[in-house]
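Sequence design from tokenized structure. All designs in this work follow the same two-part layout: the structure record, then the generated sequence. An example of the structure record is given first.
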């Protein structure tokens, strides 16, 4: 029961009203995977599958490539980054320096209190990326809070959702410090905020400075957030490995990890109680997920999971029905 039509010389399909925003879809024109997305939210949409979903709004089967924007195309022809607004510490004032980040926690039975565990990032309307050690627990997280500027960039806002499912990388071992990555599927699609940019496997994020953000308090509402962003200096893996001569890192720091030193005066020191967000480039692509460090001072590197190394797995998870 579909109706064929034409739009910009591309095939458009109006299927039955059984679709769902944020769910995966397959384009009938070429069989490629995508995400059911509101048309204005699909950057660079090409051939599109349009339906009216349950919300009766025009949507497109947005290619995963348009949701996973490579940071490479944010560099000018001469390789110099096209840098947006410079980041500053404390509460951010624009969407670019407060991208769509998440707090992940557990909702108590009385549904009045939340125990926050860690940070994450919105990578698609129904998916948040985080560390596996955050998810791997007796009690899996049940509650997500997304914060950031709204799409009109008028104000810092928040929206909450329940956890629908969790996906821990199959190679993660809680007794080792590798493959520390997980994805959380939300109970509903979040359309108020832009997903963050993700790198591709061939992205050279070392070409520009890195920074990390986080919250210093355990908030019950948005007004209690104390959001900061500090610089991170990447260091070579062989140098980093010398700091961690431990059984959990039998192979040292490997290719799917990133090492970085926080600024000496950083307020995001270990043991500060901060919920750390992602490691980002100045082009605002997230390249690392906070994984581990040792000690409570800034005299050791912080190790991050290299997101680009897990791009195929991330795409597979998000493409699930």
């Amino acid at each position: 029961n579909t109706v064929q039509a034409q739009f910009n010389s591309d095939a458009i399909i109006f299927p039955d009203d059984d679709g769902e925003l944020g769910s995966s879809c397959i384009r009938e024109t070429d069989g490629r995977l995508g995400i059911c997305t509101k048309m204005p939210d699909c950057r660079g949409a090409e051939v599109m599958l349009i339906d009216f979903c349950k919300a009766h709004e025009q949507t497109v089967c947005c290619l995963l490539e348009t949701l996973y924007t490579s940071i490479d195309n944010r560099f000018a022809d001469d390789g110099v980054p096209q840098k947006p607004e410079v980041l500053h510490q404390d509460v951010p004032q624009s969407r670019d320096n407060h991208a769509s980040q998440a707090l992940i926690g557990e909702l108590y039975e009385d549904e009045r209190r939340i125990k926050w565990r860690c940070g994450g990032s919105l990578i698609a309307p129904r998916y948040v990326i985080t560390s596996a050690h955050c998810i791997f627990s007796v009690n899996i997280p049940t509650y997500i809070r997304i914060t950031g500027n709204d799409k009109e960039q008028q104000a810092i806002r928040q929206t909450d959702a329940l956890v629908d499912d969790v996906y821990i990388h199959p190679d993660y071992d809680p007794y080792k410090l590798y493959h520390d990555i997980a994805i959380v599927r939300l109970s509903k699609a979040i359309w108020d905020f832009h997903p963050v940019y993700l790198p591709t496997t061939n992205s050279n994020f070392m070409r520009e400075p890195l920074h990390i953000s986080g919250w210093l308090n355990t908030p019950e509402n948005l007004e209690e957030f104390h959001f900061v962003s500090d610089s991170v200096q990447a260091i070579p893996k062989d140098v980093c490995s010398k700091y961690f001569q431990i059984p959990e890192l039998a192979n040292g720091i490997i290719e799917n990890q990133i090492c970085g030193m926080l600024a000496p005066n950083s307020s995001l020191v270990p043991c500060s109680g901060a919920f750390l967000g992602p490691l980002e480039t100045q082009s605002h692509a997230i390249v690392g997920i906070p994984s581990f460090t040792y000690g409570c001072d800034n005299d050791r590197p912080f190790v991050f999971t290299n997101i680009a190394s897990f791009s195929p797995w991330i795409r597979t998870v998000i493409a699930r029905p």
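The chain is about 5% helix and 35% strand. We note this feature because it recurs in several other targets discussed in the main text.
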